[in-house]
Amino acid sequence: MIRNLSQIAEMCGGTLGREEHSGVTAQGVVTDSRKISAGCLFVPLAGENFDGHAFAAEALRQGAAGCLWQRDHGTPPETEGPVIFVEDTLEALQRLSKSYLKETKAKVIGITGSNGKTTTKDIAFSLLATTFKVHKTNGNFNNHIGVPLTILAMPEDSEIAILEMGMSARYEIELLSKLAEPETVLITNIGESHLLQLGSREEIARAKVEILAGVKRGGLLVYNGDEPLIPQVLQESGTYKPEDLKTLTFGMNADNDDYPTGMMFQSAGTVFTAHSGQEASAYRIPLLGEHNVINALGAMLVARHYGVTEENIIKGLDQLELTSMRIEVVEGVSGITILNDAYNASPTSMKAAIGVLEKMKGYRRKVAVLGDMLELGEHEGRYHEETGRYITPEKVDILFTYGALGAKIAQGAGEHLPAERIYAYTDKTELVHRLMQELTPKDVVLVKASRGMKLEEVAQAIKINRLQQP
Predict the structure, then answer these.
(1) 307 to each of 248, 267, 296, how far by Cα in Å?
(2) Does the residue 97 lie in any domain?
(3) What's the confidence (pLDDT) of residue 324?
(4) Three-class SS string for 4-15?
(5) How much is the pTM?
(6) pLDDT at position 326, please?
(7) Secondary structure (3-state) at 365
(8) Cβ–Cβ contacts within 10 Å for residue 258, how many?
């Protein structure tokens, strides 16, 4: 965004402190005083344990063109530079982004879901960028601060904005949708993340379907048709649906608008064919697992809706660049292959990762190191046991678990795996020591847990350790 301070004041509902500053131009918006760039607008946000207003004067001295200032925060640093007075800096930031978005011609695509939304966003971007000038959410800037900043970072000549929308409670996605007013939205799936806050998968589904709150008349909803909770929530009287809403579905089942007709898993990714693709078309993605094929199908439906050709869909998939590889394939010094997926975990994503491990061919043994899945609410033990029961000898040869809840995974796995193939630990050092005694060259090891368990330390230990020779 490039605007003068008079325009910015009008766009965010504020008042410029001094009229003489009306023609000063600001380029870009920053909320972190450590990242001030010359000529930017600094927006000081206030929270329970921080207050950006304390850094406003320094931000102006470092070269910010101006700053917002919340009226109830005392005397502003007007001697250091231009100030725009507002009632609430966060609301002003959101209002500014909405105003800027309306002044551009960008069409907005909103993406949400319990798992896979960042990957799906990246795939949709790669497909659409073959045909349009596209802007997308950077990293996981997907909340009430990140979405406005993403919009304000968008070049004005962008034709499409792909905005990832996350949440931890009800009505957060509704706010983001009303702010962005998308014409197309995509829901990847309904998982178990945020059960602690929301209490049930039904309530999670309602939170995700809030993405329709800002959708324009005649808009498009693309969703995972294998999830019955989405159509169930769509039929509820309390669910807002725009007039003339169109829908498209994707998933594994053949009653969806698009579904895979064949899949082949390779060490570097997955090759698949699809129902809606041309007969001779084979698609390649640098991702492992059928769940990522499903993510790709959702993005492909969106791309086709905007007229992206079959040739460009294949091209877009071939040149796909990911924000982060959630299942990172790493080769250890001893010849062990590591599937590092320690970024985060829920029962849905953990089962998907186990499915990836099952499809890995040409390895001596398949080993899983699984840790606690956090924030699953009062039934967390049951979810861990159910995940364990999902493990069979065809999927996993040897199981290691870490953490008190990880022990529940081990307990569930005992229904199918022999006891001598299951190791449960609450001490990470002991786990690594026993794991390194057990592993042999040409094994493949999946490492997965919630981020708080820091199982990437286990993945790193496997990577650098040389196995003891017998």
Answers:
(1) 15, 32, 16
(2) no
(3) 64
(4) EHHHHHHHHCCE
(5) 0.86
(6) 67
(7) coil
(8) 22
Q: State the chain's mean pLDDT as an integer.
A: 95
Which residues make Cβ contacts (< 8 Å) with residue 380, sequence separation at least 6? 373, 405
Cα(64)–Cα(69) distance, rounded to whole angstroms? 13
Neighbour tally for 189: CB within 10 Å: 27
The CA-atom distances, in angstroms, between 309 and each of 127, 136, 441 are: 9, 21, 45
Shared domain for 176 and 267, answered yes or no, is yes
Contact by Cβ (8 Å): 85, 94: no
pLDDT level of residue 468 (50, 70, 90 thresholds): low
pLDDT band at 195; cut points 50, 70, 90? confident
In a domain, 470, yes or no: no
Model confidence over 255-266: pLDDT tens digits?
A: 999 999 999 988
The total number of structural domains in the chain stands at 3
Full domain range(s) for residue 55: 2-87
List, for residues 53-62, the tens digit of each pLDDT value.
999 999 999 9
State the helix-helix crossing angle for 5-12 and 89-103, rounded to 10 degrees. Answer: 110
Query: Kind of pairing, strands 184-187 and 107-112?
Result: parallel
Query: Residue 470 pLDDT more than 50?
Result: no
| Nearest residue to 334 (alpha-carbon basis) of 445, 467, 458, 437 | 467
Q: Are residues 397 and 457 in the same domain?
A: yes
In degrees and rounded to multiples of 5, residue 71 shows phi and psi of -60, -30
SS (H, E, C) 116-139: CHHHHHHHHHHHHCCCCCEEECCC
Q: Is the dihedral of CA 173, 174, 180, 185 positive or negative?
A: positive
8 A C-beta contact, residue 444 and residue 357: yes
pLDDT tens digit sequence for 137-156: 998 899 999 999 999 999 99
- What token pair was written down for 74? 């005392």
DSSP annotation string for 389-449: HT--TTT-SEEEEESTTHHHHHHHHTTTS-GGGEEEES-HHHHHHHHHHH--TT-EEEEE-
What is the C-alpha to C-alpha distance for residues 61 and 59, in angstroms, rounded to an integer? 5
Residues 206 and 332 in one domain: no
Instruction: Give the integer Cα–Cα distance in Å for 402 and 216.
Output: 47
More confident residue, 73 or 322: 73
End-to-end CA distance of the chain: give it in Å, rounded. 64
In our burial notation (b when 16+ CB lie closer than 10 A, e otherwise), range 162-183 reads bbbbbbeeeebbbbbbebbbbb
- DSSP class of residue 295 equals H
Task: Please give the average per-residue pLDDT across 375-381, as a whole number.
Answer: 92
Instruction: Give the DSSP per-residue string, 16-64.
Output: ES-GGGTT-EEESEE--GGG--TTPEE---B-SS-BGGGGHHHHHHTT-
